[in-house]
Amino acid sequence: MKLNVNGEDRDFDGDPNMPLLWVLRDHLSLSGTKFGCGIAQCGACTVHLNGKAARSCSVLAAEAQGMKITTIEGVSAGHRLLVAWVKHDVPQCGYCQSGQIMQAAALLAEKPKPTDADIDAAMSGNICRCGTYRRIKAAIKDAAGVA
Amino acid sequence: MSERKFGEGAQPSPVLTRRRLVLGGSLLGGALVVGYAATNFGAVAAGALSVGAVDVNPGVFGPFIKIDEAGWVTVVNRYQEMGQGTHAGLAAIVAEELDADWEMVRFESAPANAAVYRDVTMGIQGTGASHAIAGSWNQLRQAGAAARAMFVQAAARKWGLPVDSIGVRNGVVYHLASQRSATFVDLLADAAKIAPPEHPKLKDPKDYKLIGTEIVRRKDSQSKSNGTELYTQDVRLPDMLVAMVAHPSHFGGKLGSLDMGAARKVPGVVDVFEIARGVAVVAKDTWSARLGRDALKINWDDAKAETRSSDELRALYREIAKGKTDVTGAAFQTKGKVDDAFDGELFEASFDFPYLANAPMEPMNCVASVDGRRVKLTFAAQIQTVDQINCALAAITLPGMVEIETLPAGGSFGRRGTLTSDYIVECVNIARHVGGGRPVKLVWTREDDMSSGYYRPMAHHKVSIKCDEGGLPIAWRHNIVSQAIVPFGANELPTHGVKNSPYLSVASVVDARIFTPKLAVPPGLWRSVGNSQSAMVMEHTVDLLARRAQRDPAEYRRAIFTKVGNVRKLAVLDLVCKKAGWGGPLDAGWARGLAIHECFGTVVAQVAEVSVLGGNLRVRRVVCAVDCGMAIAPNQIAAQIEGGVCFGLGAALYGRITLDHGIPQETNFDAYRVLRMDEAPAVETHIVPSKKTPTGIGEPGVPPIAPAVANALLSLTGRPTSSLPFVI
Ligand code: FES
Ligand code: FES
């Protein structure tokens, strides 16, 4: 099958029931998308499907077919969220952060000027065991230009 | 694209190799290391462990500093970078003494070699007890200063000027009067010819330009934000297989019968075989390994397994603490004559703590290859020397033949530092079975990770205290029940935070004992170890004592700290009270709770603002004061305190691994609830100015939060807390 990832059509000939997460990581060499829980509980595997945040551990390859898949590798280097993340020294272990960024990017696409409550609502499915939540929030607001 | 040639960065440049022959590693054997050996189990043992090890090229500037032709100053980090930001602090220490340009400083992980990279206190290579900065302070300052002196000397020779007329700033060596200057790169070849001074002059802290400033930031924020950081989970090597393992459902269980027929037929599965701790499925990719494992038909033999439930164990622990079982207590602190010291009216309290999983974001994993007697590991090693020994035993080779490339960890919180190297040995066993040097990546699912044990052990504390008329403790009896976290020596770790506490110091009679039951559930090192339990016991007890004496909790503590002369705790307490507005007004329905605890040499006080409006426990703000000696990287200190508060708060609110007939019930984040963004309080960190040797920061932020919240609840509801997690 063909999967459209970061604007490119990629071939995948494996099990159509394989979760998209493992297709990306093991077959398309896109390891920025992380495995954390496998059951849509942590958000480490967040990607965009047609611009909306989705947990790639819980989407099958077959289901992702025909959709525009965006991973952290598809986020441009100068993206305001990446800039803000570095400015606030958000990451600790860093393992959750690509998922956080993908979730935050989907939020800003929908709500360019999110409130604290919007951020909490959008981001509370993404676990950070290192507890960087407040820096994430500050970085999102910074990137969005809200105080 | 995520493939990477390992060891590339470790290749010494030809210049450095030649130089090493000349120097014979004089920095290595010289002032920088000698002098610590006596306090270690020593150079001899470390040397023996390193027989056959990858040659560590100490280079011109010693084993911790590399400077290349492009001007990069690379600081070699012998510790695990698991998020705690150690690399930034270590790099800052070197850069400060070297007067390097911070923008040109980077870091890399040291190879495993205890002879060169052991921690000066532990005597082995490993990361723990928040010790990286403290353990490197002298060594790295000297290494930086020695390298600086070599550049200065080189310039002095070249320019024919006296050494003390030459300065260094931002990687540029200069002579002001003659307006001459040269970069490190310009002087590299000349500096390499200078013998490193044995006793380089260290800076006076008042001249620091980097240490203690906001300039010191993480060096890995970029790669950890854009998805390019390489974790164990991301390693891809040519021909690599992926392994999953079916483990016994009970601790202490073993394989009964096995039918691997269906598993072998799963497309992509390469092999299925029995290993010491279960059944391994190796496959071409992660998903096939997973499907293969799901297809196994296994009956486990639970004859010798732990089959009790948490409730039974809790009841048993309480009996043990009362001295009613055959588990006898060992004294860990005694003082004065017990005689009639505990007669009369006593304050009594007891506390139950559940098992807790570390649950780092990256489940345990490891990459190994075994080729005859050579073992190669690529993973987020935390205690390299121990892992080398355990893997050598598994592969029947020498510890030094176990090469480790240490990658950053997607969190650990202690889970990657087990003394059995459990998952690492598992990976080596599989790679050995596969053989031929073929790399195998062992992948644990979240469920594997969370049900694997190495939990913060279940514990019970029981205190009986007699007070004087002012309400201060005069006799303190304390019984702790906890499995031993390390299998040798006294059961010391669970006593941390109780032993030598000021609250025991103020009493004239102390009778403190630890009871050590044996269970098949493996206990482990959970961020801050015994402190996360003892802080809850001590700080909540002290609030209860203050309440009993009708004294303000801060004033009550101040009286004790004054009496025992604990000036550090007094200063931290005063700072936190001032910043938190202790005693000042607060919105209706909200209360403040205070706790202060010393953990691995660092004192942290926290004041939490808590409410239980609408039946929901909410913590909105936590004000923290910290004395961690000299602050090297204030931004990272704040980050670690913020993270520590979230980690400790999540555990206090929800954390529990429940055993049902021996089987862990919480095996993923649906049942094992952790703190999420909407629950994360605003954390403010205030640092007590200090000129003392820096102490750790990765763990000390965790212990005070649970008692701070418990104390706020006490003030809101009047009800004491006697177990965690909180029940509202
Ligand atoms: S791995 Fe997909 S949500 Fe956790
Ligand atoms: S930075 Fe470690 S889990 Fe988020």
UniProtKB/TrEMBL annotation, chain A:
Residue span(s) of domain 2Fe-2S ferredoxin-type: 1-75
Entries under InterPro entries matching the protein: 2Fe-2S-bd, 2Fe-2S-bd_dom_sf, 2Fe-2S_ferredoxin-like_sf, 2Fe-2S_ferredoxin-type, 2Fe2S_fd_BS, Beta-grasp_dom_sf, Diverse_Oxidoreductases
Keyword Cell division: no
Keywords of this entry: 2Fe-2S, Iron, Iron-sulfur, Metal-binding, Oxidoreductase
Pfam families: Fer2, Fer2_2
The keyword Iron-sulfur belongs to this UniProt entry's keyword annotation: yes
Signal peptide: none
The organism's place on the tree of life at top rank: Bacteria
PANTHER family, per the entry: BLR6218 PROTEIN, OXIDOREDUCTASE WITH IRON-SULFUR SUBUNIT
Protein's UniProt name: (2Fe-2S)-binding protein
Organism of this sequence: Bradyrhizobium diversitatis
UniProtKB/TrEMBL annotation, chain B:
PROSITE patterns: TAT (PS51318)
Record protein name field: Xanthine dehydrogenase family protein molybdopterin-binding subunit
PANTHER family, per database record: ALDEHYDE DEHYDROGENASE (PTHR47495:SF2)
Transmembrane segments: 21-39
Keywords, sorted A to Z: Membrane, Transmembrane, Transmembrane helix
Aldehyde oxidase/xanthine dehydrogenase a/b hammerhead domain span: 226-304
